[in-house]
Amino acid sequence: MMSQLILLKRKNQLIGVIKVLFIDSCYIIALMNVKAKKHDESLKLLEYIDNERTLINSTVILEIFNNLKKKRYEAKRLDIIDLIYSMDKIHYLDVLEYNNALDLCKYYNFSVNYGDCTIIQSMEKYNVNNIVSFDNDFDKVKGINRVYL
Asked: Against a cut of 0.90, is the pTM above it?
């Protein structure tokens, strides 16, 4: 299985078979923007994660849609929406989870932003430890493995 080849730079070790991956908005945006610095990396990473089960949350959708208004995404808008629909699970946070995310922000002294804290909440709810992201703030969170090349 391809997922056995995914390497975590932070720990410099193989993480083995992945059950579910959380997909961060920065990865999706880099994947869709051919001019993005991380576009080539996101394409290579897609080879490894394409057959994995995926999870996103309402915050990721919001972040993606805020970017869709930019002219450079005009031709890709429908592809991005299709990509969102292709996710195995979309988590819509409830009031308690949003409040817990705020508590996480305080816990990390706001060095992890609120949007990322909602992602952490979703990952905890679904017992997901691996996130595809170029955002190194997730390296601060114990128990989360950031998957990138």
From this structure: no
